[in-house]
Amino acid sequence: MSTVRGTRLPLGTTARTGEKCPESGVWQVVGTPTATAPLAKGNTMPPYAQRAVTWKLTQYA
Q1: Does 60 score more than 80 pLDDT?
Q2: What pTM, to 2 d.p., does this model score?
Q3: DSSP-assigned letter for residue 16
Q4: What b/e readout covers 30-45, taking b as 16+ CB neighbours within 10 angstroms?
Q5: 45, 16 Cβ separation under 8 angstroms
Q6: Furthest-apart CA pair in the chain: how many Å?
Q7: What is the predicted pLDDT for the residue at 4?
Q8: From the centroid of its chain, how far is CA 5?
Q9: Where are the domains of the chain?
Q10: Nearest CA to 47 among 17, 11, 19, 26?
């Protein structure tokens, strides 16, 4: 018996400032200082502290 699995990206997926958000959820800045932000799939990944950063998916929406 086969089951249909969701198409969610795995937690830990990363995206950079300026890229389109690949998965709705809570994203955390990689590095220090750190912050979290709820972001929706398709939105542009924002800068943090006025600089380009890498964001990591930590929780699904």
Answers
A1: yes
A2: 0.87
A3: E
A4: eeeeeeeeebeeeeeb
A5: yes
A6: 51
A7: 54
A8: 20
A9: 14-60
A10: 17
